[in-house]
Known about the structure:
Helix content: under 10%
Low-confidence stretches: none
Strand content: over 45%
Shape: globular
Largest sheet: 7 strands, mixed
Radius of gyration: 13 Å
Mean pLDDT: 97
Structural class: mainly beta
Number of strands: 11
Amino acid sequence: QVQLVESGGGLVQSGGSSRLSCAASGIIFRLYNVAWYRQAPGMQRELVARINTGGTTNYADFVKGRFTISRDNAKNTVDLQMNSLKPEDTAVYYCNAVDNFGSRTYWGQGTQVTVTS
């Protein structure tokens, strides 16, 4: 059974930092491109950051220079370090894994990040 389990998040003050972690099981993690998405109330889910199997990263413009995605294939984890948080970063953050063929996609259950002003 495939599981992506997010941890971290919670309540953070504006300008502060937080780190999210996603632990994967049931897949050969190193063969999956992994990403973090977020969804604010009433909004569509949007890509935050992605790291592919080769370690190449890309970021949404609204987090560039503030967030860093990283992966540890030995631990089957992908982290999102979030710095200089803003109230508009408030959302549920989801971990996502997609195989290289795009044929298998998995999602975590999400973790809430709330940034207070």
